[in-house]
Amino acid sequence: MSKKEHFKNINKITAILIFIYYLGTNSIQAKPAAPLVLDKWVELALQKLETDGITGGIHSSSGPFTRYQIAQIIAKAQSRITDGRIKPSPTDIQLLAKLTAEFSDELLEIQGKAVEQGLRFVATPQFRHFPKYQHKISPAFETAIGYSSGKNFFLYEEIEVSEIGDKYLQEGNTASKRLNPWRANYVADFTRVYLSFSISKIDVEIGRDKIFWGPGYRGVLGISDNSPPFDLILLSGEFGPVKGYSFAAVLDKMWADKHKYLANRYLSGHRLDWQVNDRLELGLSEIILYGGDARGIEWQYINPILPYYASQYNAKLDDSTLFDNNTMFVGDFAFKPLDGVRIYGEGLIDDFQYTNHDPNAIGLLAGFYISNLLKSPNLGIRAEYARINRWAYTHLVTENQYTHFGSIIGHWLGPDADDLYLELSHFLNVDTNIQLNYEFQRKGEATVEDRYRGEDYKRINFPSGVVERQHKIGIQVTYEPISGWQLDAGCRYLLLRNESNMAGKDQNHGEFRLAMKHRFRVK
Questions:
Q1: What DSSP character marks residue 343?
Q2: pTM
Q3: Is residue 20 helix, strand or coil?
C-alpha cells in the first residue's frame, strides 16, 4: 500500500471514531460489557436453561454474550419464575443460583443499585496438556483486566500466556505473523482487547474481539472462533424482537500469486437476529471479504444497512476479476417444539450459480439438543452434522480466500468434508459435568487453497480423491466452581484411515488432555 492510500485509511477510521465520539458525548447510557474470562460452564448452563424454557428467547445464535447481557438473561429468568409462568427443575434452580452468584455485580447494576466502579481482575494460573498442540504438561496463565470509568466507558484486555505457539490451525497462506515466542518458547497472546460504550440503543466496540454467528454447538458456517480474533469496529443494537449487528475488520496480509503484490485484506459483515417468540429464532447474515494492492477500507462496506452483494455487483469491472470480492450469505434458525428440545440448522451460500457452468459453493449444518433425556433433568443428548462442499470458502482471487492468518474464518471443518458428532452429557451437580462423545469425520483432498479451475465438477465425488476417515470416541469431565480449583480433563481413542489423504496410511492411538486451573477475582 502506498503512503497516500495508508493516510486515506487512517482518515476514514479517524472520521468514524470522531463521529462515534460525538454521538457518544451527546447520548450516553450505562451498559458495562466485560466478558472477564467466561468459563465453559456458563455457556452450558445458558444452553440448558434456554432449552428448558426457563429464560425464554435470548438471541442465543449471536455471540459472544457480554456479562451485562447474561445478567439481563438471568433477571428475565428470575422474573418468569417469580410470576409463576414456568416451573423449573431442581437442576435449573441450582444452575440459575450459580449464575446469579457469578453475575451479582451486573444484576445490582440492572436493579439500579450502586456498584463500585474501577478495576476488575480475573486470573487463572494453570497446568495443562493438550496433545493437539504440545507433548508435555506445562504451566500457563490466562488473565482478564477490565476498567470502567463512570457509567459508560469500559476498557477490557484478555491475555493468554502459554507454550502453545498458535492454537489456530492454518489451512491457507498468510504473509503476516501473529505471534513470536520468547523465553522458554512461551508466547503472550492478546486475544481480546477493546473499549466499549453505548449510544442510545447502539452498543459500540472498538478493538480486538471474536464473533460467533450461528446456532451450532461445535462450529458455525459463517463467522466463528476458528480463526484469531479480529481488529474491528463493531456496532450492535436491539430493536424490539430484532437484534442487529454490523462490523468492519482489518485482516492479515497475503501475497497474491497472480499479480505478485502484497494484498491488504478486509472483512465486513452484518446480521439480523429475529427472536420471533420464545420458541423460534431466525438469523440472516451477509459477509464480504475483499482486498488488493491499492485497496483500503471502502465506505460502502462500512455502511451497516447497505447490501454488500448489490454494491459489489454495481462496482464490478466487466473485464477484470481484480475487484471480484468474496460475498456470502448465511441463514439460520433455532426452534423449540417443546420445552427440553432444541432443533437448529444453518445454510451457507458462498457462491450459487444460476446456470450449470460452475459448481455451487455451499455448506449445511443441522443438529438437535434434548436437555431432559428419559425425563431426567441432569441428562442430555446432542447430535450435530456439518457438510461443506469442495469449493466453499475458496475464491478465484487469491487474497479473497476466506481465511485470517491462514485459519478458516468459518467452520473448522473446512471445504470438501463432513462431520457427525454425538454427545451424551450428565450434570453430577452444578459444578461437575461428564460428557461421552463419538465423532465420524470424512475429509477429501481439497483445501481452501484449491480454487475452481474449470474441472468437470459433476464427475467429482464428495468428498473428493483419497478420503481421510476418522472415528473418535471419548469422555470429558469438567469441574468448574465459581472460584478456586477447576479441572478440565478428557481422553479419546482415534481410528484414522488414509491419514493426510494418503492411501493405506492408517493408525490407531489414544489421547489425553488435561487442564488444572485456579480461578480468583479482584474487584
A1: E
A2: 0.90
A3: helix
Q: What stretch of H or E contains 74?
A: helix 67-82
For the segment 145-204, what is each residue's pLDDT rounded down to a tens digit? Answer: 888 876 678 899 999 998 876 788 888 889 998 988 888 888 999 999 999 988 888 999
Q: Supply 207's cell numbers.
A: 478493538
Q: Which residues of 139-166 are buried (b: 16+ CB within 10 A; e: fewer)?
A: ebebbbbbbbeebbbbbbbbbbbbbbeb
* pLDDT beyond 80 at 215: yes
**Cβ atoms of residues 375 and 223 within 8 Å:** no
Q: Are 332 and 283 in contact (CB under 8 A)?
A: yes
pLDDT digits (tens, 9 = 90+) for 427-454: 999 999 999 999 999 999 999 998 887 7
Q: How many CB atoms lie within 10 A of CB 395?
A: 22
Judge residue 103's burial from the number of C-beta atoms within 10 Å of its C-beta, 0-12 exposed, 13-18 middle, 19 or more buried.
buried
Q: Which three cell numbers stand for residue 261?
A: 503484490
Residue 91, helix vs strand vs coil: helix
Classified as helix, coil or strand, 106 is helix
For the chain, which domains are there? 3-417+448-459 (2.40.160)
Return the closest-CA partner of residue 278 out of 365, 338, 345.
Answer: 338
Contact 483, 121 (CB under 8 A): no
Residue with cell 451460500: 349
* Cβ atoms of 324 and 208 closer than 8 Å: no
Peptide bond into 139 cis (omega under 30): no
Separation of alpha carbons 187 and 181, rounded Å = 5
Q: pLDDT for 328-352, tens place per residue?
A: 999 999 999 999 999 999 999 987 6
CA distance 35 to 26: 26
Instruction: Please tell me the distance from the alpha carbon of residue 252 to that of residue 280, in angstroms, as a whole number.
Output: 37
**Helices assigned H by DSSP within 27-66:** 40-51
Is the Cα torsion angle 481, 57, 55, 205 positive or negative in sign?
A: positive
Specify the higher pLDDT residue, 173 or 386.
386
- H or E segment to which residue 17 belongs: helix 3-26
Q: What separation in angstroms does the CA of 47 have from each of 44, 215, 360? A: 5, 11, 33
**CB–CB of 263/256 below 8 Å?**
yes
Length of the chain: 523
Residue 177 exposed, middle or buried by CB count within 10 Å (0-12, 13-18, 19+): exposed
